[in-house]
Amino acid sequence: MEIRLSREPTLYRARYLIPVIGRPLENGALISVEGRIIDVGPYTKVKKGHLGPEQDLGEVALLPALVNVHTHLELSALKWRLTPSGSFVSWVKNLLRVRSNIKAEEFVKAARQALKSMWHEGIGLLGDHGNTGLSISLLRESPLTAVFFREVIDFQGKSSLKDYLKDHLNDPKITFSLAPHAPYTVSPLLLQAIKAWTKKYNLPFSLHVAESPEEVEFLMTGKGPIRELLEGRGQWSASFVAPGLRPVKYLDRLGILDEDTICVHLSQATEKEISLLSRRRARPCICLRSNTFLGVGIPKVNLMLKLGLKPCLGTDSLASNDKLSILAEMATVHRFFPEISPEIIFKMATIWGAEALKQQGIGYIAPGARADLLIYQLPQRVPLKDLFSCIVTQPPEQLGRLYG
User: Do 190 and 59 share a structural domain?
Assistant: First the structure.
Protein backbone atom coordinates (compact mmCIF):
# COMPACT_ATOMS: atom_id res chain seq x y z
CA MET A 1 0.00 0.00 0.00
CA GLU A 2 1.46 3.33 -1.09
CA ILE A 3 -0.53 6.53 -0.59
CA ARG A 4 0.62 9.92 -1.81
CA LEU A 5 -0.22 12.74 0.57
CA SER A 6 -2.73 15.29 -0.58
CA ARG A 7 -1.28 18.76 -1.03
CA GLU A 8 -4.26 20.30 0.79
CA PRO A 9 -4.80 19.91 4.56
CA THR A 10 -5.90 16.28 5.00
CA LEU A 11 -6.60 14.20 8.09
CA TYR A 12 -5.34 10.62 8.26
CA ARG A 13 -6.66 8.29 10.95
CA ALA A 14 -5.17 4.98 12.09
CA ARG A 15 -5.92 2.56 14.88
CA TYR A 16 -2.47 3.26 16.34
CA LEU A 17 -0.09 6.15 15.86
CA ILE A 18 3.48 6.06 17.16
CA PRO A 19 4.94 9.57 17.63
CA VAL A 20 8.25 8.22 19.12
CA ILE A 21 8.66 11.43 21.14
CA GLY A 22 5.44 10.70 23.02
CA ARG A 23 3.25 7.81 24.03
CA PRO A 24 1.60 5.70 21.31
CA LEU A 25 -1.94 6.77 20.53
CA GLU A 26 -4.93 4.53 20.05
CA ASN A 27 -7.43 5.85 17.50
CA GLY A 28 -4.85 8.46 16.53
CA ALA A 29 -4.80 10.96 13.71
CA LEU A 30 -2.64 13.57 12.05
CA ILE A 31 -3.15 16.37 9.59
CA SER A 32 -0.58 17.07 6.91
CA VAL A 33 -0.21 19.79 4.32
CA GLU A 34 2.51 20.25 1.70
CA GLY A 35 4.43 17.27 3.07
CA ARG A 36 4.53 18.52 6.67
CA ILE A 37 2.56 17.48 9.73
CA ILE A 38 0.57 20.30 11.30
CA ASP A 39 -1.41 18.45 13.97
CA VAL A 40 -1.21 15.10 15.81
CA GLY A 41 -3.31 13.56 18.54
CA PRO A 42 -6.38 11.49 19.36
CA TYR A 43 -8.77 11.38 16.42
CA THR A 44 -11.62 13.14 18.23
CA LYS A 45 -9.34 16.04 19.18
CA VAL A 46 -7.64 16.41 15.79
CA LYS A 47 -10.99 16.17 14.02
CA LYS A 48 -12.37 19.26 15.77
CA GLY A 49 -12.13 22.26 13.52
CA HIS A 50 -10.86 20.29 10.54
CA LEU A 51 -13.11 20.97 7.56
CA GLY A 52 -10.98 19.35 4.86
CA PRO A 53 -10.84 15.78 3.55
CA GLU A 54 -9.93 12.83 5.73
CA GLN A 55 -8.87 9.26 5.12
CA ASP A 56 -9.35 6.31 7.48
CA LEU A 57 -6.39 3.95 7.05
CA GLY A 58 -8.08 1.24 9.10
CA GLU A 59 -6.53 -1.36 11.40
CA VAL A 60 -2.95 -0.22 10.96
CA ALA A 61 -0.23 1.53 12.91
CA LEU A 62 1.30 4.73 11.53
CA LEU A 63 5.05 4.99 12.19
CA PRO A 64 7.77 7.42 11.16
CA ALA A 65 10.03 6.14 8.38
CA LEU A 66 13.16 4.27 9.50
CA VAL A 67 16.76 5.51 9.37
CA ASN A 68 19.77 3.57 8.06
CA VAL A 69 22.73 5.59 9.32
CA HIS A 70 25.48 3.56 7.70
CA THR A 71 25.66 1.72 4.42
CA HIS A 72 27.69 1.60 1.20
CA LEU A 73 25.35 1.49 -1.78
CA GLU A 74 28.23 1.32 -4.23
CA LEU A 75 29.13 -2.14 -2.90
CA SER A 76 25.67 -3.63 -3.55
CA ALA A 77 26.93 -5.69 -6.49
CA LEU A 78 29.01 -7.72 -4.03
CA LYS A 79 25.93 -9.42 -2.57
CA TRP A 80 26.51 -13.18 -2.16
CA ARG A 81 30.01 -12.87 -3.68
CA LEU A 82 31.92 -12.90 -0.38
CA THR A 83 31.95 -15.33 2.53
CA PRO A 84 33.34 -15.00 6.06
CA SER A 85 36.98 -16.02 6.14
CA GLY A 86 37.72 -15.91 9.86
CA SER A 87 39.98 -12.93 9.23
CA PHE A 88 38.76 -9.36 8.75
CA VAL A 89 41.74 -8.40 6.60
CA SER A 90 41.34 -11.49 4.43
CA TRP A 91 37.73 -10.45 3.83
CA VAL A 92 38.89 -6.93 2.88
CA LYS A 93 41.40 -8.38 0.40
CA ASN A 94 38.72 -10.57 -1.14
CA LEU A 95 36.39 -7.57 -1.38
CA LEU A 96 39.02 -5.55 -3.25
CA ARG A 97 39.78 -8.45 -5.59
CA VAL A 98 36.15 -9.25 -6.41
CA ARG A 99 35.22 -5.56 -6.75
CA SER A 100 37.90 -5.01 -9.39
CA ASN A 101 36.31 -7.66 -11.64
CA ILE A 102 32.76 -6.29 -11.70
CA LYS A 103 31.57 -4.10 -14.57
CA ALA A 104 30.40 -0.55 -13.92
CA GLU A 105 26.88 -1.15 -15.18
CA GLU A 106 26.46 -4.03 -12.74
CA PHE A 107 27.35 -1.73 -9.83
CA VAL A 108 24.73 0.79 -10.94
CA LYS A 109 22.03 -1.85 -11.42
CA ALA A 110 22.69 -3.40 -7.99
CA ALA A 111 22.72 -0.03 -6.21
CA ARG A 112 19.43 0.97 -7.84
CA GLN A 113 17.84 -2.31 -6.74
CA ALA A 114 19.18 -1.85 -3.20
CA LEU A 115 17.57 1.59 -2.99
CA LYS A 116 14.27 0.16 -4.20
CA SER A 117 14.41 -2.57 -1.55
CA MET A 118 15.15 -0.06 1.20
CA TRP A 119 12.14 1.99 0.18
CA HIS A 120 9.83 -1.05 0.40
CA GLU A 121 11.30 -1.95 3.80
CA GLY A 122 10.46 1.43 5.26
CA ILE A 123 13.69 3.41 5.16
CA GLY A 124 13.19 7.14 4.72
CA LEU A 125 16.63 8.52 5.61
CA LEU A 126 19.95 7.03 4.55
CA GLY A 127 23.58 7.69 5.45
CA ASP A 128 25.43 6.45 2.37
CA HIS A 129 29.22 6.15 2.27
CA GLY A 130 31.24 5.86 -0.91
CA ASN A 131 34.55 6.73 -2.54
CA THR A 132 33.40 6.55 -6.18
CA GLY A 133 30.33 8.79 -6.17
CA LEU A 134 28.44 6.09 -8.10
CA SER A 135 25.33 6.35 -5.94
CA ILE A 136 24.91 10.14 -6.02
CA SER A 137 22.76 10.30 -9.16
CA LEU A 138 20.69 7.36 -7.90
CA LEU A 139 20.06 9.09 -4.58
CA ARG A 140 18.89 12.20 -6.41
CA GLU A 141 16.37 10.10 -8.34
CA SER A 142 15.08 8.23 -5.29
CA PRO A 143 12.33 9.35 -2.87
CA LEU A 144 14.66 8.80 0.11
CA THR A 145 16.32 11.61 2.02
CA ALA A 146 20.09 11.09 2.02
CA VAL A 147 23.33 12.18 3.60
CA PHE A 148 26.20 11.19 1.33
CA PHE A 149 29.58 10.80 3.02
CA ARG A 150 32.48 11.03 0.58
CA GLU A 151 34.70 8.36 2.09
CA VAL A 152 38.40 9.22 2.30
CA ILE A 153 41.14 6.58 2.22
CA ASP A 154 44.65 8.03 2.42
CA PHE A 155 47.01 6.77 5.09
CA GLN A 156 49.92 8.76 3.67
CA GLY A 157 47.96 11.99 4.07
CA LYS A 158 48.91 13.39 0.68
CA SER A 159 45.40 14.45 -0.31
CA SER A 160 44.11 17.97 -0.15
CA LEU A 161 40.57 18.37 1.10
CA LYS A 162 39.91 20.42 -2.03
CA ASP A 163 40.30 17.20 -4.04
CA TYR A 164 37.20 15.83 -2.32
CA LEU A 165 35.18 19.01 -2.06
CA LYS A 166 35.30 20.47 -5.56
CA ASP A 167 31.87 19.03 -6.45
CA HIS A 168 28.45 18.75 -4.77
CA LEU A 169 28.98 21.30 -2.03
CA ASN A 170 25.52 22.76 -2.59
CA ASP A 171 22.83 20.26 -3.49
CA PRO A 172 19.08 20.71 -2.96
CA LYS A 173 18.43 16.96 -2.58
CA ILE A 174 21.41 15.50 -0.72
CA THR A 175 23.43 16.62 2.30
CA PHE A 176 27.12 16.08 1.54
CA SER A 177 29.83 15.46 4.09
CA LEU A 178 33.24 13.81 4.36
CA ALA A 179 34.04 10.58 6.21
CA PRO A 180 37.50 9.17 6.86
CA HIS A 181 37.22 5.43 6.34
CA ALA A 182 38.92 4.33 9.58
CA PRO A 183 41.74 5.24 11.98
CA TYR A 184 44.02 2.80 10.12
CA THR A 185 43.37 4.05 6.56
CA VAL A 186 43.63 7.82 7.06
CA SER A 187 46.64 9.71 8.42
CA PRO A 188 46.29 11.46 11.78
CA LEU A 189 46.59 14.96 10.30
CA LEU A 190 44.04 14.22 7.58
CA LEU A 191 41.65 12.82 10.19
CA GLN A 192 41.89 16.08 12.09
CA ALA A 193 41.51 18.19 8.94
CA ILE A 194 38.34 16.36 7.91
CA LYS A 195 36.90 16.73 11.40
CA ALA A 196 37.68 20.46 11.41
CA TRP A 197 35.96 20.89 8.04
CA THR A 198 32.78 19.04 9.08
CA LYS A 199 32.70 21.02 12.31
CA LYS A 200 33.03 24.31 10.43
CA TYR A 201 29.98 23.50 8.31
CA ASN A 202 27.99 21.81 11.10
CA LEU A 203 27.95 18.44 9.34
CA PRO A 204 27.96 14.89 10.71
CA PHE A 205 31.31 13.10 10.79
CA SER A 206 31.37 9.32 10.40
CA LEU A 207 34.03 6.61 10.48
CA HIS A 208 34.49 2.91 11.22
CA VAL A 209 35.88 2.49 14.75
CA ALA A 210 37.03 -0.55 16.74
CA GLU A 211 35.56 -2.93 14.19
CA SER A 212 38.15 -5.74 14.30
CA PRO A 213 40.93 -7.23 16.44
CA GLU A 214 43.37 -6.41 13.61
CA GLU A 215 42.54 -2.70 13.95
CA VAL A 216 43.29 -2.79 17.67
CA GLU A 217 46.56 -4.65 17.08
CA PHE A 218 47.70 -2.15 14.47
CA LEU A 219 47.04 0.95 16.58
CA MET A 220 48.63 -0.65 19.64
CA THR A 221 51.76 -1.99 17.91
CA GLY A 222 51.96 -0.73 14.33
CA LYS A 223 52.20 -4.33 13.19
CA GLY A 224 49.99 -7.14 11.98
CA PRO A 225 47.76 -7.82 8.97
CA ILE A 226 46.62 -4.21 8.57
CA ARG A 227 50.19 -2.94 8.21
CA GLU A 228 50.80 -5.68 5.65
CA LEU A 229 47.66 -4.60 3.78
CA LEU A 230 48.75 -0.95 3.74
CA GLU A 231 52.21 -1.90 2.52
CA GLY A 232 50.78 -4.16 -0.17
CA ARG A 233 48.58 -1.37 -1.51
CA GLY A 234 51.29 1.27 -1.45
CA GLN A 235 49.61 3.15 1.38
CA TRP A 236 52.12 2.68 4.17
CA SER A 237 53.62 5.84 5.66
CA ALA A 238 57.14 5.54 7.04
CA SER A 239 56.47 8.52 9.30
CA PHE A 240 53.64 6.78 11.16
CA VAL A 241 54.36 5.85 14.74
CA ALA A 242 51.86 3.55 16.41
CA PRO A 243 50.11 5.53 19.17
CA GLY A 244 49.99 2.49 21.47
CA LEU A 245 46.34 3.27 22.12
CA ARG A 246 43.08 1.50 21.49
CA PRO A 247 40.95 3.04 18.70
CA VAL A 248 38.57 5.21 20.76
CA LYS A 249 41.36 6.61 22.94
CA TYR A 250 43.43 7.32 19.82
CA LEU A 251 40.60 9.29 18.22
CA ASP A 252 40.04 11.18 21.45
CA ARG A 253 43.70 12.18 21.56
CA LEU A 254 43.29 13.56 18.03
CA GLY A 255 40.27 15.61 19.15
CA ILE A 256 37.90 13.70 16.88
CA LEU A 257 35.18 12.73 19.35
CA ASP A 258 32.14 14.91 20.01
CA GLU A 259 28.35 14.83 19.67
CA ASP A 260 28.60 15.02 15.85
CA THR A 261 30.93 12.02 15.53
CA ILE A 262 29.29 8.77 14.39
CA CYS A 263 31.40 5.81 15.52
CA VAL A 264 30.39 2.84 13.38
CA HIS A 265 30.60 -0.76 14.67
CA LEU A 266 32.47 -0.52 18.03
CA SER A 267 32.40 -4.32 18.14
CA GLN A 268 35.84 -4.32 19.81
CA ALA A 269 35.27 -1.34 22.11
CA THR A 270 35.98 -1.97 25.78
CA GLU A 271 34.06 -0.66 28.77
CA LYS A 272 36.62 2.12 29.21
CA GLU A 273 36.27 3.13 25.58
CA ILE A 274 32.48 3.21 25.77
CA SER A 275 32.71 5.28 28.94
CA LEU A 276 34.94 7.73 27.06
CA LEU A 277 32.43 7.88 24.19
CA SER A 278 29.75 8.68 26.75
CA ARG A 279 31.76 11.57 28.17
CA ARG A 280 32.25 12.95 24.64
CA ARG A 281 28.58 12.32 23.75
CA ALA A 282 29.55 10.57 20.53
CA ARG A 283 27.04 8.62 18.42
CA PRO A 284 27.50 4.83 18.27
CA CYS A 285 26.15 3.20 15.12
CA ILE A 286 25.46 -0.51 15.49
CA CYS A 287 25.66 -2.82 12.44
CA LEU A 288 25.03 -6.07 14.28
CA ARG A 289 24.24 -8.33 11.33
CA SER A 290 27.42 -7.26 9.53
CA ASN A 291 29.48 -7.85 12.68
CA THR A 292 27.97 -11.32 13.01
CA PHE A 293 28.72 -12.15 9.37
CA LEU A 294 32.36 -11.12 9.74
CA GLY A 295 32.79 -12.63 13.21
CA VAL A 296 34.45 -9.48 14.57
CA GLY A 297 32.56 -9.36 17.88
CA ILE A 298 29.35 -8.00 19.38
CA PRO A 299 29.21 -4.38 20.61
CA LYS A 300 28.28 -3.69 24.22
CA VAL A 301 24.91 -2.10 23.46
CA ASN A 302 23.58 -2.53 27.00
CA LEU A 303 26.50 -0.60 28.42
CA MET A 304 26.08 2.16 25.86
CA LEU A 305 22.48 2.66 26.93
CA LYS A 306 23.37 2.44 30.62
CA LEU A 307 25.91 5.24 30.17
CA GLY A 308 23.42 7.48 28.40
CA LEU A 309 24.56 7.01 24.81
CA LYS A 310 22.00 6.89 22.00
CA PRO A 311 23.01 4.09 19.62
CA CYS A 312 21.59 4.20 16.12
CA LEU A 313 21.38 1.45 13.51
CA GLY A 314 23.10 0.78 10.21
CA THR A 315 23.40 -2.19 7.91
CA ASP A 316 26.86 -1.69 6.41
CA SER A 317 26.95 -3.01 2.84
CA LEU A 318 25.74 -6.05 0.95
CA ALA A 319 29.34 -7.23 1.02
CA SER A 320 28.76 -8.21 4.67
CA ASN A 321 24.97 -8.38 4.92
CA ASP A 322 22.22 -10.10 2.94
CA LYS A 323 19.86 -7.10 3.09
CA LEU A 324 19.96 -3.39 3.89
CA SER A 325 16.98 -3.70 6.22
CA ILE A 326 16.58 -1.79 9.45
CA LEU A 327 13.61 -4.05 10.22
CA ALA A 328 16.05 -6.97 10.23
CA GLU A 329 18.57 -5.01 12.31
CA MET A 330 15.93 -4.25 14.95
CA ALA A 331 14.96 -7.92 15.15
CA THR A 332 18.63 -8.90 15.49
CA VAL A 333 19.25 -6.40 18.29
CA HIS A 334 16.25 -7.86 20.10
CA ARG A 335 17.54 -11.39 19.60
CA PHE A 336 21.00 -10.59 20.98
CA PHE A 337 19.77 -8.21 23.70
CA PRO A 338 16.25 -9.32 24.75
CA GLU A 339 16.53 -7.21 27.91
CA ILE A 340 16.51 -3.97 25.86
CA SER A 341 12.95 -2.73 25.54
CA PRO A 342 11.47 -2.81 22.02
CA GLU A 343 10.58 0.87 22.43
CA ILE A 344 14.27 1.76 22.84
CA ILE A 345 15.20 -0.40 19.85
CA PHE A 346 12.61 1.48 17.80
CA LYS A 347 14.17 4.79 18.85
CA MET A 348 17.54 3.45 17.70
CA ALA A 349 15.94 2.82 14.29
CA THR A 350 14.28 6.24 13.99
CA ILE A 351 14.88 9.43 15.94
CA TRP A 352 18.35 8.56 17.27
CA GLY A 353 19.50 7.82 13.73
CA ALA A 354 18.09 11.10 12.40
CA GLU A 355 19.81 12.98 15.22
CA ALA A 356 23.12 11.30 14.43
CA LEU A 357 22.82 12.40 10.78
CA LYS A 358 21.80 15.91 11.95
CA GLN A 359 18.53 15.85 9.99
CA GLN A 360 15.66 17.85 11.41
CA GLY A 361 12.01 16.78 11.41
CA ILE A 362 12.72 13.13 10.67
CA GLY A 363 12.28 10.00 12.79
CA TYR A 364 9.23 11.10 14.76
CA ILE A 365 5.63 12.26 14.30
CA ALA A 366 4.82 15.74 15.58
CA PRO A 367 3.76 19.15 14.25
CA GLY A 368 6.50 20.46 11.99
CA ALA A 369 7.96 17.02 11.24
CA ARG A 370 8.20 15.67 7.73
CA ALA A 371 5.21 13.55 6.71
CA ASP A 372 7.22 10.51 5.67
CA LEU A 373 5.24 7.72 7.29
CA LEU A 374 4.98 3.95 7.34
CA ILE A 375 1.79 1.93 7.33
CA TYR A 376 2.26 -1.19 9.46
CA GLN A 377 -0.48 -3.73 8.89
CA LEU A 378 -1.21 -5.25 12.28
CA PRO A 379 -0.81 -9.05 12.15
CA GLN A 380 -3.65 -9.51 14.64
CA ARG A 381 -5.56 -7.42 17.17
CA VAL A 382 -2.46 -6.28 19.07
CA PRO A 383 -2.96 -4.55 22.44
CA LEU A 384 -1.36 -1.12 22.63
CA LYS A 385 1.11 -2.31 25.29
CA ASP A 386 2.49 -4.97 22.91
CA LEU A 387 2.78 -2.74 19.86
CA PHE A 388 6.54 -2.05 19.97
CA SER A 389 7.27 -5.70 20.65
CA CYS A 390 5.18 -6.71 17.66
CA ILE A 391 6.95 -4.26 15.33
CA VAL A 392 10.43 -5.27 16.47
CA THR A 393 9.96 -9.03 16.66
CA GLN A 394 7.52 -9.59 13.79
CA PRO A 395 8.84 -7.37 11.00
CA PRO A 396 6.86 -7.62 7.77
CA GLU A 397 8.50 -8.22 4.41
CA GLN A 398 7.27 -4.81 3.29
CA LEU A 399 5.69 -1.75 4.81
CA GLY A 400 3.12 0.56 3.29
CA ARG A 401 4.05 4.20 2.76
CA LEU A 402 2.22 7.46 3.30
CA TYR A 403 4.42 10.14 1.79
CA GLY A 404 4.44 13.39 -0.14
Answer: no
Distances (CA, A) of 96 to 113, 154, 229: 22, 16, 11
**Longest pairwise C-alpha distance within the chain:** 72
Is the entire prediction scored with pTM above 0.90? yes
Residues pairing with 63 in the sheet: 374
Interatomic CA distance for residues 309 and 326, integer angstroms: 19
- What span, in angstroms and rounded, lies between the C-alpha atoms of 181 and 264? 10
Per-residue exposure over 145-183, b if at least 16 CB sit within 10 Å of its own CB, e if not: bbbbbbbbebbbeebeeeebeeeeeeeeebbbbbbbbbb
For residue 266, report the phi and psi dihedrals to the nearest 5 degrees: 55, 25
| pLDDT tens digits, one per residue of 197-248 | 999 999 999 999 999 999 999 999 999 999 999 999 999 999 999 999 999 9
Return d(Cα 324, Cα 395) in angstroms, integer.
14
- State percent of the chain over pLDDT 90: 88
Q: What is the CATH number of the domain that holds 218?
A: 3.20.20.140
Residue 59 sits in a domain of what CATH number? 2.30.40.10
Please tell me the distance from the alpha carbon of residue 132 to that of residue 361, in angstroms, as a whole number.
Answer: 30
171 or 272, which is more confident: 272
